[in-house]
Amino acid sequence: MATIVERTRKDGSTAYVAQITRRAHGVQESRTFDKEKTAKTWAERREKEIDNEIANGKKPIKSKAKKITLGDAIDRYLADSMVEIGKTKAQVLRTIRTEYKISDMPCGSITSPDIVAFVKELHERPDLNSPGTAGNYLSHLGAVFDIADSTWGLRLDDVEMKKAARVCKRLGLTARSAERTRRPTLDELDKLLTHFEAASAADPRCIPMAKVVLFAIFSTRRQDEICRITWADYEEDERRVMVRDMKHPGQKRGNDVWVDLPEPCPAIIATMPRTKDRIFPYNSDTISRRFTDACKVCEIDDLHFHDLRHEGASRLAEKGLTVPQLSAVTGHRSWKSLERYTHVRKIGDKFNGWSWIDRFVG
Predict the structure, then answer these.
(1) pLDDT bracket for residue 59 (50, 70, 90)
(2) Backbone angles phi, psi at 279, to 5 degrees
(3) Which segments constitute the Tyr recombinase domain (predicted)?
(4) Cα–Cα 20 to 30 A to 226, which of 24, 49, 101, 137?
């Protein structure tokens, strides 16, 4: 039975504190009311909820915890994570937070069917309807479920998440993302570089995108990495550079890696002015936007800036580099990640005699 305790507040008014205890199950809740009748009504209702949860073999969830939603948990995850999460993961979680009704559900009430329904809702959007994309969304959301209970006491059940993941996989709603194999042709690169050269001629203050594109291909560096490289981390004689915080699934910060710079990367760097700490002192988002806009203008379909990294690694494999030699350039820790490049059939360098190299670094 709940206990109702009458107390006098500092202002002289009377308060009624309803107290519920189930010591064997670690339950101890209380709530204060202005009227005794209201306190009794709440206590009777709340006791029934607690006893039903105990009878069904569940650990009773505090009433306050029931009001905390999945959206609140996502906010907490984004704000409290000591390890910097990637921009893609953060954007995915923000999208779930603001655009999907599951984020409004109380943490303790979310079950496997609710999560499966969320994944089905993803498939209703044209830009998110592939099993690979849905799988990524579910994986990122699963990270919140993994730590919410043990870290913040938020009752997100990771068992329900795992059950939902199995169901979604069996139904074909989720799948591992297929490896992207898109590579730019020389004709497409000619169009892009001609466009960027004209832009630089019209406004010398704009980002020298032609040099950035060339460096991305031949260095195999990601756009964020290119924008972080500093002059202090560049060893010209050794033809190598330190890439700070290189992307790695298990280590977001402090993963600093020395990587080799094949030709013509040192020559491209030599054309950059030493006016700032960074060799390419530009915003990576701006570079991405300029590249995407240029592809639209040049009528080039389905080409991403990251495809330049794949092109660069494929080129090195086609030139006959071994997996260890490839790793020294790309920075991959796991050689297994580079196995896809060991099966290339074409041998040689398609960039031999390419005029754009001499035009910018000759």
Answers:
(1) confident
(2) -70, -40
(3) 179-355
(4) 137
Enumerate residues 6+ apart whose C-beta is below 8 A from 248.
Answer: 255, 333
Tokens at residue 307, please?
């495809």
Closest alpha carbon to 50 in 66, 23, 27: 27
**The model scores a pTM over 0.85:** no
Helices (H) and strands (E) in the chain, counts: 15, 6
Distance separating alpha carbons of residues 95 and 73, to the nearest angstrom: 14
Q: Which two tokens stand for residue 323?
A: 């997996």
Of 81-85, 124-128, 228-232, highest mean pLDDT: 228-232
DSSP type of residue 152:
I
Tell me how far apart the alpha carbons of residues 127 and 133 are, in angstroms, rounded to a whole number.
Answer: 9
Cα-Cα-Cα-Cα torsion 302, 306, 309, 314, nearest 10 degrees, comes to -30
The token pair at 170 is 């069996």
d(CA 81, CA 89): 12
Residue type, 25: H
- Tens digits of per-residue pLDDT, 299-308? 999 999 999 9
| Single-letter amino acid code for the residue at 120 | K
Paired with 191 in beta bridges are none
**Secondary structure class of 15 (helix, strand, coil):** strand
Question: Which domains are present in the chain?
Answer: 3-60 (no CATH), 67-170 (1.10.150), 186-361 (1.10.443.10)
- Cα–Cα distance, 185 to 193 (Å, whole number): 12
